[in-house]
Specification:
two-stranded parallel sheet; binds S-adenosylmethionine; methyltransferase activity; Rossmann fold; globular; Arsenite_MeTrfase-like; SAM-dependent_MTases_sf; Methyltransferase type 11 domain-containing protein; alpha/beta
Length: about 250
């Protein structure tokens, strides 16, 4: 599963890393995925996401949008076996020459969420995490279940995704620690300044024009952030999982 790179930023006040496992929480996240799947089209992309839809058309090779939180590898395998999905496309119509399809996910998978909260981030007790572009809310639910963060705040531009997140927050009674703001993150300076951790999973690459991306990237990053190396050997994963985890980067704000 292809996951474009993403960054996680945390302030230097945070301490040592924490590790724990919670099987019940995995089950709860899978139940949330079931609920969300029943509310969304198979690609989990909405008509209201015009910029994202334009991006689909710009992909050089045939690409499918498969949300990694809603559809894990086993789920995709079973859909392929039932003939409802394919990992390949025919390069010459009618022939047996095929090539692998590109897969794009707009959410973290369960495996990535566990890596993020169990291995990447330190103990978040009393801390505020902001997810820029919270979409289905996966980072917020993962943070609720896998961390002790005091507040998890999602900022999401798309109102339909905000409604879906509110539905899950209400159903699973997450409102004591999760808030979702329907807003453009560019208007949320004070919120970002108050955050201890900021998660950005592919928020700009797929939703801004190249000129807009260049404007945001025109910063001397090394002056204000330092990349913290991550140990990918701490958890057992397949080659595909490892490739996904390699796309996760942690930066400490100096
Ligand atoms: C790739 S998804 C991130 C999903 C989620 N954070 C996760 O990791 O599972 C990017 C989201 O950012 C939202 N987005 C794009 N530009 C935004 C902006 N300026 N302000 C707030 N949200 C934005 C999009 O609507 C989309 O839902």
């Amino acid at each position: 599963m292809h996951q474009p790179s993403c960054g996680v930023y945390y302030s230097k006040e945070l301490g040592d890393f924490d590790e724990f496992t919670q099987d019940n929480n995995d089950v709860m996240l899978k139940n949330i995925a079931d609920d969300l799947r029943s509310c969304l089209p198979p690609e989990a992309v909405l008509c209201s996401e015009q910029l994202a839809l334009q991006k689909i058309r710009q992909q050089p090779e045939p690409t499918v949008h498969v949300d990694a939180f809603l559809y894990d590898e086993d789920f995709i395998d079973s859909l392929c076996e039932e003939g409802k999905m394919s990992r390949n496309y025919c390069t010459v119509c009618g022939s047996h020459q095929t090539a692998p399809l590109g897969f794009i996910s707009h959410s973290f998978s369960l495996m990535e969420l566990k890596f993020l909260f169990h291995q990447v981030l330190p103990d978040l007790s009393g801390k505020v995490l902001v997810d820029i572009g919270s979409r289905l809310g996966t980072v917020l639910y993962g943070g609720y279940l896998y961390s002790s963060a005091a507040q998890l705040c999602g900022v999401e531009l798309n109102g339909e995704f905000c409604q879906l997140q509110e539905m899950i927050i209400k159903k699973y009674e997450f409102s004591d620690r999760i808030k979702v703001l329907h807003a453009d993150v560019c208007t949320q300076g004070p919120l970002l300044q108050s955050a201890d951790v900021i998660v950005m999973n592919n928020v700009f690459e797929y939703f801004l024009t190249e000129a807009e991306q260049a404007r945001y990237a025109d910063l001397q990053l090394s002056c204000w952030v330092e990349e913290i190396p991550l140990n990918l050997d701490v958890c057992q994963q397949s080659e595909t999982d490892r490739e996904a985890l390699e796309q996760i980067h942690l930066y400490k704000v100096l």
